[in-house]
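dude i think i finally got it to work??
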Amino acid sequence: MSRMSFVVPALALVAFVACAGRPLPDQNPVAVSPVKMQGDQWREVDQIFVVTDGSGTMYMEETFPEAKALSRSFIQSLPDKSERARDKTYNVSAIAFGGDDRQVAPLQDFNRSALESEAAKFQVMGSIDGRGGETPFHEVFEEIGQSLEGQTGKAAVVIFSDGEPDDAAAALAAAQTLAESRGAEGICFHSVQTGDNPAGSEFLNALARVNNCGSVRPAENLRTASAISSFTSGIVTGTAPRPPAVAAGAPCEGVMRLRGVEFALDSAVVTDSSKVVLDTAADELRRCPNRIIKVDGYTDSTGTEQYNMGLSKRRANSVRSYLESQGVRGSQLEPRGFGESDPIAPNDTRDGRARNRRVELVGN
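look at this
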């Protein structure tokens, strides 16, 4: 069989599969609710690959149904798009593989129901007798790298497998190359091992050490909704940065310069991640009702100077309105717009423009 191109139509399931062998019975996934952001948590992973091993060893050891069910439960547990996040980007792909065959829901904007539906169709692949083929993890990692070209942000590869690749050295080398290609953006490899093959465990643990940010756990540890939620939360969430809390009784003086309030392109809507920062500022301003703060809005260089000046003023007023909703007196707040002036990062990169779309709180 010829290998499918990794670029496929949106939400299409592409399969080159022969089904002559005895199919393994499906296992029901654990019903689990989407993870919610608690306290200072936010979603910090922007791209997620859910990889299900459909190779020959998974068929022979009859562990494929468990891997498939767990991958479906993991998709169910992923946080909603509306949850507080480091970045609005939220792309997810689901991949099953065996030999040269693939079933792929391509990397694109998160759609839980569509992904879970596609994962429900996964089956053993890679052989004309339906009993599965080799386990070419190295090729899967290379294909993931192709999907990530042009993408920015943090990525995670979440694997459900017995951990028995056809070439462990090639797989680890491919994972390392993928990690190096991501640079500072970062990618982490997390695995759930079906079965208890010691060599499989050794490989998956070595994979987790690539970039020193991965994890491994046995499938038997993910048989409850709470366990799956904890697993998912540990992969996709982090702690949103907060300014230092103001101590009770601290003097209402000293320079205050607060950053971290950022906006989506062409938007003046205060994001959930920005509210984490503003809530701390509101605490101080309520405690110091006579303190006057300048609320300075900025934009990136996209658009005309005149339009950007107006957008920056709308952003400053949006932050003022949010602080007032948190009990800060409007008379304490002086909104100002500065347009695209005074960038704090280059405007020729996506990340730089995102940093420049901001509001700063400044006071003495």
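DSSP finds ten helices and 13 strands in the chain.
im so relieved honestly
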